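Input sequence (509 aa), recorded before submission:
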Amino acid sequence: MKKIYNICIFALAALIGVSFTGCNDDDPDVAKAVLASASNLNYEATENPGQIITVYSDATWTCEHPDWVTVEPETGSGTTEVRISVADNLRDGTPDNPRKADVIFKGVTKASEAHVIVRQDGDKFRDVQPISISDMEASPEEAVAIIKNLTVVAPIPGAIIATDGEKNVYIQADTAVVAGDVLTVYGEKSNDTQNMPIVIADFFANGGTKSSLPAAVNITDQIDTYTSGTRTYVAIDGKVDGNNIVVKSDDAVNHGVVLASANGFDVKALNGHDVTMYGFYAGTASPALNIIATSADDRGLIETIYFSEDFEWLAPWAAIGNGTACGSTVEANDPNANAPQMATPKVEGVSAYQALTAKGYELLATCAPNKSARKPEAQTYLQTNYLKFGLTGYYSGIVFPISEDIDSSIGSILSFDWCSMRQGSGAWDATEIVVIVNYRGQETQYPIAVSPFVTNEAYRWVNEKVEIPAGAIGSGATITIRNADSQWPSAAGSAFRWFLDNVKLIAND
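Predicted structure, token format:
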């Protein structure tokens, strides 16, 4: 134990800049370094036996704590086992509000203190008065919230959207409800990844006054600029393209991204249809506006989509990243945006690479002669929510299997968005890519022009359209997108990096 004690004390001294020989000699018996073996302790509301921690010090320490916490002993020196106990947290015989205390093991200075946060459970809703959705949105993070007279308008996986007739609220909960149910939610205010207010539910009570959903706000003309601090019910006119609602204007094509759908509503069944999509605003991750879709007015098919991949389903992996969420190089114009290897982010033990290959996709990899080979997942990277390929001397690509029925008599169009990589000097990688269609043993290449960027230009997506003639593609084909043959690999080991998103194969009719 003495060896452990010495290590802890000297480690603490190094961290806080304390030199044992340079401390106040007027208090030789007061500790100049104190360390506790735990920083947080949690207790039930009642019937707690106490918990034992170890306090390490180089001399005598004393303890400071509130009356409802008991510390035994309250002073010590060297290595001391300490029992920390709490009184029952009751008021009038029932649990009181949860409480928290800072137990301080004190030495000669503030820098020599060790703090242990003690938390005790209780009834966090005791004395809490019901509030409105607006009040909840204005409250601080972790504030306790009781909201009455909520009518369920959209059950979605793992959550509920409900209304009080004036505003709408996203409630994170796994509970069996249906649209029209009226309830009271007991929970805590939090914020989602888009910094939109939500309620994390502890439990519900049924009953109350039923409310009607406010009328939808059509934001089609504001899709580039619309923002809201609340869960506004919105409508967007456009075409369904995979998990996107595509809005065309005179000078641009813009996207609203469906993050989730109400139970029983299948957005992808409307793929290629002209619709008015209804849903709830869920934040903006420029340039995409996010919604939780609930229903649609369907005006019919306007585009036959055989295959589409926008990589939005990779959002849970992108949020995890490598401990830091993935970035968005193209949208943020940031070449240093976080882009971990595909094998790194894991959701329930499944990596982004494994999830990609489970869809039947294949990542390709090669490298310059002077480089050691890497696995494909170690030279392909994840952004939010798209892929980055290659690094200096390493070149990557992807293969999509096409299992959908295709009318090969009319030909097809493959479209996708891509972008090269900008170097630190402001110059761009002279990346060239190629589309390769393999159908019935026949391989056809469709070269894509070198990226059209000029020095120091901002990142932007370049949309490519490849016309595939009738008979050249059908069910069972594969589509490969990778660096061109001259860069597969580069003999000089040059950097030819690139990004890919929004891959789609449609009928050319």
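Checked by second reader. Confidence is low (pLDDT under 50) at residues 1-25.
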